[in-house]
Amino acid sequence: MLPKILVVDDDRYTRTLIEQLMRKSAEVHLAESGELARELFAAIDFNLVLMDQRLPQVKGLDLLREFRLQRPKLVAILITGHADVRDAVAAVREGLFDYLTKPFEDLEALEAVIGKALELDRAYREIDSLRTRLAVESGAPDIIGQSPPMERLLGQVREVAALDTTVLLEGESGTGKDVIAKLIHAWSLRSSKPYLEVNCGGLPESLLESLLFGYEKGAFTGAAQANPGYFEKAHGGNLFLDEIADMSPKLQSSLLRVLQDRSFCRIGSTNPRKTDFRLICATNRPLAGEVKAGRFREDLYYRINVVALNLPPLRERGDDIVRLAVHFLDRYNTKFGKDCGPFTPAAVRALEACRWPGNVRELQHCIERVVALQPGGVIDASHLSPTCDFLPELDPQDKTTALPTLAYQEARTEFERDYMRRLLEAAGGNMSEAARCSGIPRQNLYVRMKRWGFVID
Ligand SMILES: Nc1ncnc2c1ncn2[C@@H]1O[C@H](COP(=O)(O)OP(=O)(O)OP(=O)(O)O)[C@@H](O)[C@H]1O
């Protein structure tokens, strides 16, 4: 279904221009007055409102405030003349997505801003529908993942969750292996039974051994009473062994025996006990490589590697980055009792341009820090940069490999961001100088610099 856009402008030329620009990718509705805009807004659930500031009877900004009272998460763009830039800047501070100055000189840039605004609206809606779904599917963790690689992964998870096979989750640190393991449990036929997890890399060998196998009274100094281990407690349910590559060679061979016999002995006992758990393992170091290097038993690897699922790194998840950012923004606003956001277009671009080497965990921490430090209001690229020092630069190596595969529009966007940054640097931060060097009118330049988050008002 095409997104719905409302264009409110008394100038026929602007209305027609936007309609022609967007009519293939959106359902565009036009209003030449505030009154008609109110009627349309009451009848249709718009994904985006483009509002002129100077309307005959009402100020566009006031009308948008009215609309936002009815729909707080409305994504809107204010259209202003150069003279009204101050109003527009104030509007963005209030949480409007962006403003555009008339006359529009660069239609591709206009289309790109509208595209980003629609992306943010999509993110809001998807998060809301996810919440509703999760409320129904209680027990499942909050998982954001509508990008094609995540859709594929979640499809595979659905397939294997109900089967009783051992699952190996592979992926870089912070990609969500832990949450996927919980999801497998929630979707499995064992969901009403125990779910136990242990980080094999976080415990000394002897402690991990007693945690997994349990022990009898007096088995070792300090074993004042018998204690069942996870192999026993997980009976009927799912056992998640995280960082399996870190397991010591001794425990690797003990685990292999348990998996072969489906039985084990508590420490200090020779009495074998039967157990029935489904095993889920995770690693952020590919296990095949660990086997090759002689650090992981090959026979255990084949036992574990029955169904291997690969978690894609965040940088390959496209729109999920914005969805996750919105999700974490909501979460930390609630947690800290704040009202930060929304993200400006420059912030959205910066989030998407980042390589996120620490994946979802790093993005989560980045948003948490921003919300913790900001008193409230919109989040711009400049708010993200000090907390994420790798922003907004792309890895130079990546640039050479990524550029040829970018769509023309994205490559152009990349170029403009880079150009504006260098220009501002060369002009020593002086806008008049930057305007003179580039030949771009000062006001126009200011708007572009602001869009990239290189100037803050
Ligand atoms: N798809 C997702 N949707 C929402 N939150 C996510 C998602 N993926 C990961 N997270 C969150 O990101 C954080 C890191 O995820 P998780 O611990 O599952 O990663 P991991 O791959 O197990 O990392 P490690 O290898 O370091 O153990 C967690 O707080 C988790 O809730």
From TrEMBL:
Domain spans labelled Response regulatory: 4-117
Entry-annotated residues carrying 4-aspartylphosphate: D52
Molecular function terms, GO-annotated: ATP binding; sequence-specific DNA binding
Pfam family, one: Sigma54_activat
Name of the protein in question: Two component, sigma54 specific, transcriptional regulator, Fis family
Record organism: Albidiferax ferrireducens (strain ATCC BAA-621 / DSM 15236 / T118)
Annotated keywords: ATP-binding, Nucleotide-binding, Phosphoprotein, Transcription, Transcription regulation
Lineage: Bacteria, Pseudomonadati, Pseudomonadota, Betaproteobacteria, Burkholderiales
Chain ranges of the Sigma-54 factor interaction domain: 143-372
Gene3D superfamilies: 1.10.8.60, 3.40.50.2300, Homeodomain-like, P-loop containing nucleotide triphosphate hydrolases
Source organism, top-level taxon: Bacteria
InterPro entries in UniProt: AAA+_ATPase, AAA_lid_NorR, CheY-like_superfamily, Homeodomain-like_sf, HTH_Fis, P-loop_NTPase, Sig_transdc_resp-reg_receiver, Sigma_54_int
UniProt key word Nuclease: no
PROSITE patterns (alphabetical): RESPONSE_REGULATORY (PS50110), SIGMA54_INTERACT_1 (PS00675), SIGMA54_INTERACT_3 (PS00688), SIGMA54_INTERACT_4 (PS50045)
A Gene Ontology biological process term: phosphorelay signal transduction system
SMART domains per record: AAA, REC
Membrane spanning residue stretches: none
